[in-house]
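Example with several molecule types.
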Amino acid sequence: DQQVKQNSPSLSVQEGRISILNCDYTNSMFDYFLWYKKYPAEGPTFLISISSIKDKNEDGRFTVFLNKSAKHLSLHIVPSQPGDSAVYFCAASDGGSEKLVFGKGTKLTVNP
Amino acid sequence: KAGVTQTPRYLIKTRGQQVTLSCSPISGHRSVSWYQQTPGQGLQFLFEYFSETQRNKGNFPGRFSGRQFSNSRSEMNVSTLELGDSALYLCASSLGAGAGSPLHFGNGTRLTVT
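Resulting structure tokens for the full complex:
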């Protein structure tokens, strides 16, 4: 039973365009959401997070949107750069727990 | 600031053996978590330690255990290894304050069981 789902295993975009990565969750107790980026042979790197009391959080080229009624969040990267090519993981936690539940990841390829 | 350090990076063991993995968290971080990453299951939570106490535990058999020392360093042990234990084991540290305290991961230990 996957509580966090990333339904697109891969995404390909052109450099300079917007990348939109999507994530759905089923557990209504989740109140903190994060995005991580992972390069091969490295651990995941924290990108951006959002609390359930917000619906948007921005950090430079990265913006995360949260739609609680739809149990859906998305990560927007604009403009996309070739260095953004990596696997992106969505993760969620509840009640201040350090335990994260991860989606299975979306491989983003940004073509020059 | 040094990141999370995991040793060793690679390990090959035989079925039935046991293994110990080590993790040094970011200085000042008191929470250490362990995750298993496999192609089929993705990243799965093993357990979390805070101030030398296990605070959370995932759905793994008792062969998987861990501990945390007073300097926040942590070790994870897997006994009676099975082929299915082959995975990337990731350690992550944080301040331990829950929401608003993101996990920072090490580069992992790649365990192969033959």
